[in-house]
Amino acid sequence: MSLPDVTMYTDGACSPNPGKGGWGVVVIEQQGMVQREMSGCERNTTNNRMELTAALRGLQGLKEPHQVTLITDSTYVKNGITRWIHGWKRRGWLTADKQPVKNRDLWEELGQEILRHQVTWKWVKGHALDQWNERADALAVAARKGLPLENSGVPVPGPQENRIKIFSGITYAPSRRKGSWAVILSYQQHVKVLGGAAEGSSANQFHLMAAIAGLSALKREL
Which residues are catalytic? Predict the structure, then answer.
């Protein structure tokens, strides 16, 4: 019996690096429809840890074993899991220079998680207008932007709160006038994520797109 087939785009963001970070995942079914989106954030982290976390959380989010095409713009993640990890294990989690492997905790978790699935790893150039890579990046940036200083997660209002909170973020390449935006709407125990990518616009226009999309969504059920 063949495994269910999905394509997964993952991305991480951190600014400053190290500093506040976020990760994003887009899971796409065989029919090309988005099955699920995930994101999260941490207060003190690095870009590489967020890239690793995105891949790990994406795979962990699949309850049953799947055949996964996992697409990342991180050569660190792709090369690490397909090439370097075997040498690290043989050397007792030391690099070729006999230095301790950075982010070992996440590499060990990821190495264990891929045993549940059949994973094909692919690299895509970041910020090159790949629709789903841009989407995963926008999710990661929005999660990072929404992280309050006093705790380590995007807040979801308690059941007694009647307020809707909107978190927005963009990523933008000025030289190419390309970018993407994302919005997280949070109300009680409900969360909705919106986003998009485009070219030929300014950074301010992307901020406006995010704000308009977030406010327009208030007309619809969360």
Answer: 11-12, 51, 73, 127, 137
